[in-house]
Design goal:
Layout (H helix, E strand, L loop, with lengths): L4 H21 L6 H19 L5 H11 L8 H6 L1 H19 L3 H12 L6 H23 L3 H9 L2 H4 L7 H5 L24 H4 L10 H22 L1 H6 L12 E2 L20 H13 L10 E3 L1 E2 L13 H12 L3 E8 L6 H21 L7 E5 L12 H7 L1 E9 L1
Parallel strand pairs: 1-3, 4-5
Antiparallel strand pairs: 2-6, 4-6
Helix pairs in contact: 1-2, 1-7, 2-6, 2-7, 3-7, 5-7, 6-7, 14-15
Length: about 400
């Protein structure tokens, strides 16, 4: 069961903190806790709505990861000190703009109406509620090592807690027809614990004998793959010596053009003799058979994209072919495709590009007969770097497409 953020906030604020906040907002002391729940629930509803868009969830993840932590041990003093309260609300106003955009003012009016008694402090309440929610989520993300998928699951888990605490008209203002639709498109594709492997599914023992088309198709496909691998090996030296328009790094998974067309030659030291697809497939199969596997481990896919585009430039994509084959062999396997960029350039543009590239890989898998319900695609932007983004080498490593296991039954 997901943590109840409303209960967590009430405990962290304490009765003294809630009383001090009610006093600062001009509310009777007995209406302090209901007001806090209304404010927190409104912020969470806004986050659920924002997370339903393709890039919204990644934006929330970045916002939460970068947010400061509220000092709950001195929260009563903060609420009583106009200077500290003003600083907290200034931070909250920026958060509300990120969550609600241009609708932040109207949402504040709806909260004021819900507080009753002629109160006009709904906006002020939200400017406190937002930092409180962000602080709690930031602590959970960092203490539990939550990734974007697990954060999405945590937010979805709040729906039952906020259902009866939202101000009238909020869903309509957010463009949500019904409460059941709130966060409805927000993908939850993480799992907290490793799942039991199915070794028998990895040994290629079909449940029944295949005939007809299958008798000659798979041998032919394997033969073509072998010929492709031999051809790539034969051309390896030629490719390394040719000037071109791509960057290739041993650990890099997206091969892109550089702005000036320069080339970073591949580092092949210690490279395995097997082809790229065999390396990915072997590692992925081994991971699936491991009962103690890390549920958050990501596997890079080697794919060539045109610069600043989701157009795949390579004639074939062996890693995606291998992934599709593994999914065909294991119908209980569902995955998440994640697109990543470096932190260079505009973050929103990077986020959109990473989403489009993740969508492109998902489409390749569905084109190969994989049920689209078994594959989710998320654009992470630069939220999950794996290398130092201050160097060109680090930026190249951070530009990647990765796959992660969601369920394996």
């Amino acid at each position: 069961m997901a943590d109840n953020l409303l209960d967590m906030a009430i405990r962290q604020l304490g009765s003294d903190g809630i009383g001090a906040l009610a006093g600062a907002l001009g509310l009777p002391a007995d209406r302090g806790e209901p007001a806090v729940n209304t404010g927190l629930s409104s912020v969470l509803a806004g986050m659920l709505n924002k997370g339903s868009s393709k890039t919204g969830m990644a934006g929330l993840f970045n916002m939460i990861s970068d947010s400061g932590v509220v000092d709950f041990s001195s929260i009563t003093d903060i609420f009583k000190d106009p200077e500290q309260m003003g600083a907290l609300q200034k931070s909250g106003a920026n958060m509300l703009d990120g969550i609600f955009g241009s609708k932040a003012g109207r949402v504040g009016e709806l909260v004021s109406a819900a507080l009753g008694g002629g109160s006009a402090n709904g906006g002020s309440l939200l400017k406190v509620a937002a930092p409180v929610v962000m602080s709690l989520l930031s602590r959970l993300v960092k203490s539990k090592g939550l990734d974007i998928s697990q954060l999405a699951a945590l937010l979805i888990g709040q729906k039952s807690h906020i259902k009866d605490k939202l101000p009238a008209g909020l869903l309509n203002e957010l463009g949500v027809p019904d409460f059941s639709d709130l966060g409805g498109r927000l993908e939850t594709h993480g799992h907290a614990q490793p799942q039991e492997p199915r070794p028998q599914a990895l040994h290629h023992e079909p449940a029944k004998k295949r005939g007809g088309f299958g008798k000659w198709f798979w041998p032919l496909l394997i033969a073509l793959a072998a010929l492709y691998a031999l051809n790539m090996c034969a051309k390896k030296q030629e490719v390394e010596k040719k000037p071109g328009e791509v960057i290739l790094d041993e650990e890099s998974v997206i091969i892109e053009e550089t702005p000036n067309g320069a080339v970073t030659p591949p580092d092949t030291s210690g490279a395995p003799a097997t082809g790229e697809a065999e390396g990915f497939a072997g590692s992925f199969r081994e991971y699936l058979t491991n009962a103690a596997r890390d549920p958050n481990r990501e596997f890079p896919l080697t794919i060539e994209f045109a610069k600043d585009s989701a157009d795949v430039t390579s004639a074939s994509v062996p890693d995606v072919e291998a992934l599709a084959k593994i999914m065909q062999e294991n119908p209980g396997l569902t995955i998440a495709i994640e697109g990543h960029t470096s932190g260079e350039g505009d973050e929103m543009a990077n986020q959109q590009l990473s989403q489009e590239r993740a969508d492109a890989v998902r489409q390749m898998l569905t084109d190969k007969g994989i049920d689209p319900n078994r594959v989710t695609a998320t654009g992470m932007g630069s939220a999950k770097p794996i290398a130092d983004d201050a160097t060109e080498e680090g930026k190249q490593k951070n530009r990647r497409i990765s796959v992660r296991v969601v369920t394996f039954e």
